[in-house]
Fold this sequence. Notes:
Elements: H1 17-38, H2 49-70, H3 87-96, H4 101-118, H5 126-141, H6 149-177, H7 186-226
Amino acid sequence: MKIPSFGGSKQKKPKSPESVLKSSEGQKSALRFSAKSKIPNKPFSHWHPGLRQLVNWTVTVGSVLLCLLLLPTRLPGMELLEIGPNWLLIWVVSWSVKRTIFAGALAGIVLGLLQDAMTSPNPTHAVSLGIVGILTSLLQKQRFMEEDFISIALIAFGMAFLAETIFGLQLTLMGDAYGGHSVRKVADIWTYYQRVALASAILSSLWAPVVYYPLNLWWQRMKLLEQ
């Protein structure tokens, strides 16, 4: 008597050693991939404090170098009466608005000397930018201005006008120091710098939030991490 055979009761053929090896290698690679995907990237807050400070200073110095490169640049929308924004002044305002008077003055003097190296050291820009750093720190310390875009634009407008006025005064004093034999006459100096001061103040106030917002966001984050 024959035993009836059913389709589902067929015996499975044993796997060859090659197929077993391939399947084991595939499982190992899948496990490695899943293990790698589960390892999270180390967040910035868990970095070593020294490394965070290095990154912070790299960003700060890089922003200064970027402003130095933009200083002689005349792109569309960055020029008014052949005058461009005072990018270094904008940086000094952004830096000094939440820092001490000493830090604001030091930043203004250093950036003024850098501007002297790019243009002319006679008269120096360190005086005007140093005064800008001091006055900006005083405004924030006395809480005369809030920390929004409109306030930063107003501060940049006033400080740019003041910086150009101080620079014009320096040129006038230089002419007097040389016995009045300067090529630039006092009337010509002030006529020219009235136009320069107004154009620089308008453009600097318009572009100040563009520099202030990312730098302030970065410095706030670094301050929170330090605390």
